[in-house]
Specification:
heterodimer, A: 100 residues, mainly alpha, Helix Hairpins, 3 helices, 78% helix, elongated, B: 184 residues, Four Helix Bundle (Hemerythrin (Met), subunit A), 8 helices
C-alpha cells in the first residue's frame, strides 16, 4: 500500500499547477480547464482518505464534487459563448467592461 | 523445474508502487502541458490524458465507481463540451497571441511558493494521517468498500445532498440554455 502522504503530495502538486494556470493564462477556456484540474486534485485527496480510513463517505463526496464540476463547466462555457458573441474575444485581459 | 511467470516475481506492493509512480508522472506531466499549451484544443487533449491518469489512480485506490464516473462524466461529458466550445469560439489567430497575461511572473512565483508551502506542511504533518491512529475493528467492520456500499450510502445517509445535487444539475442545465440564447 502506497503511503497516503504520496497521494497528498501529488494532489498538492496538481492543485498548484491548476492555480498557476488560473493566474497566468489569458484564454478563459484554459482558465476553466485549470479549475477542473484543481477540483480533480481535491477528489484525489478525498478518495485517498476514503481508502486510508476504509470509509466510503469520501467517495460519495468525490462524486458530489464531480457533479458540481459538471454544473460549473456547463454554466461557465455558456458564459464564454455569450461573452464571445458580444466581445469577439476570449482573452480575460481584454474583457474590461467594468473598469470604468 | 518450471519457470515462474514473470508477474509472480513482482510483489503486489512493488506493483502498486510502480503503477502509482507511472500514473503520478503521467498526471503531473499532462497537467503541466495543459497549463502551458498554446492551442486550446491541445490543452483539452492533454487535460483528457491527465484526467485518465487520475482515473487510474482512483482504480488503484479501490474506488472503481469514482474512477468509472470520472471517465464517463469528465472525459466523456465535460471534455467533449469543452472541445465543442473551443470549436465554436474561433481559435484562428490564438496560437500567435501572447499566452500569459502581464502578471505571469508574480503568479508563477506565488504558485511555486504555494506548492512548496503545502508540500512542506503535508510532509510535516504526515504522522497524523497514519493508519494506526484509527481503531482496527473499524477496518474489519467495513471490508466491502465497493460500488454497492457507495450506492447504499448515496441513497441513505446522503439522500438530501443527492437530491440537492440533482436540482443543481437542473439549474445548471436551464442556465446553460438561457445563457446561450441569441438575444442575450
Amino acid at each position: 500500500m502506497v503511503d497516503i502522504t504520496h497521494y497528498l503530495v501529488l494532489s498538492t502538486i496538481v492543485f498548484s499547477i491548476g492555480v498557476v494556470g488560473v493566474l497566468t493564462r489569458r484564454n478563459v477556456i484554459i482558465i476553466l480547464m485549470s479549475i477542473e484540474l484543481m477540483l480533480n486534485s481535491v477528489n484525489l485527496n478525498l478518495v485517498a482518505f476514503s481508502d486510508q480510513l476504509q470509509d466510503p463517505s469520501g467517495q460519495v463526496f468525490a462524486i458530489f464534487v464531480i457533479t458540481v464540476a459538471a454544473a460549473e463547466a456547463a454554466v461557465g462555457l455558456g458564459i464564454i459563448i455569450a461573452l464571445f458573441r458580444n466581445k469577439e474575444t476570449v482573452n480575460v485581459d481584454e474583457i474590461d467592461l467594468m473598469r470604468g | 523445474m518450471k519457470a515462474r511467470p514473470l508477474y509472480l516475481l513482482i510483489s503486489p506492493f512493488a506493483m502498486e508502487a510502480t503503477l502509482f509512480y507511472i500514473l503520478a508522472t503521467m498526471l503531473v506531466v499532462f497537467a503541466i502541458l495543459t497549463v502551458t499549451a498554446a492551442n486550446p484544443v491541445r490543452s483539452a487533449v492533454y487535460l483528457i490524458s491527465a484526467l485518465l491518469g487520475m482515473a487510474g489512480l482512483f482504480f488503484l485506490l479501490q474506488a472503481e465507481f469514482v474512477g468509472a464516473v470520472q471517465i464517463l462524466v469528465y472525459v466523456g461529458g465535460i471534455m467533449v463540451l469543452f472541445l465543442f466550445v473551443i470549436m465554436l469560439v474561433s481559435v484562428r489567430e490564438v496560437e500567435t497571441q501572447r499566452r500569459a497575461n502581464r502578471q505571469w511572473k508574480t503568479a508563477l512565483v506565488l504558485g511555486i511558493v504555494l506548492s512548496f508551502e503545502l508540500v512542506y506542511f503535508v510532509v510535516q504533518g504526515a504522522d497524523v494521517f497514519r493508519i494506526d491512529t484509527i481503531s482496527q475493528d473499524l477496518i474489519i467492520e467495513s471490508q466491502t468498500l465497493n460500488t454497492e456500499t457507495v450506492g447504499g450510502l448515496l441513497y441513505s445517509t446522503y439522500l438530501l445532498p443527492f437530491e440537492i445535487a440533482s436540482v443543481l444539475l437542473l439549474v445548471a442545465m436551464i442556465a446553460a440554455v438561457v445563457l446561450t440564447q441569441k438575444q442575450l
